[in-house]
């Protein structure tokens, strides 16, 4: 009727990490489905999801996390990302076009003259 299961320390760690991730994702999904708590852009993402959204490899994401370059949440041994934070992080790297720069400097010098 019952199967005997032998758990090693490594298996226990893997099982506990798996349970923790499932609980975290379940809670985040409950929060995500409650519009009073989180907006759609505040969706929790795993490293795989973040890599897909940013079109970067997982090792690159790990490197950015190690350098504290990218916004992330670390819970235990797991990394999570908020979709909104990743979008804002990418947008911060936006460079102004030549026309935007010319307009900026024209406005800045116009204010200094007057």
Name the poorly predicted regions: none
Count every beta strand, where a strand is a DSSP E run of 2 or more residues.
Answer: 3
Q: Return Rg in Å.
A: 22 Å
Spatial shape: elongated
For this structure, the quaternary state is: single chain
- Average pLDDT figure: 81
Secondary structure class reads mainly alpha
The number of distinct structural domains comes to 1
Taken in chain order, the helices and strands follow as HEHHEEHH
Helix content: 55-70%
- Count of helical stretches: 5
Distance between the termini: 88 Å
Widest beta sheet: strand line-up: 1-3-2
The fraction of residues assigned to DSSP E strands is 5-15%
Major sheet: 3 strands, antiparallel
Model description:
The chain starts with 8 loop residues before the first helix and ends with a helix. The chain has one domain. It is elongated and about 85 Å long. A 3-stranded antiparallel beta sheet has the order 1-3-2. With 114 residues, the protein is mainly α. It is built from 5 helices and 3 strands; from the N terminus they run αβααββαα. β2 and β3 form a beta hairpin.
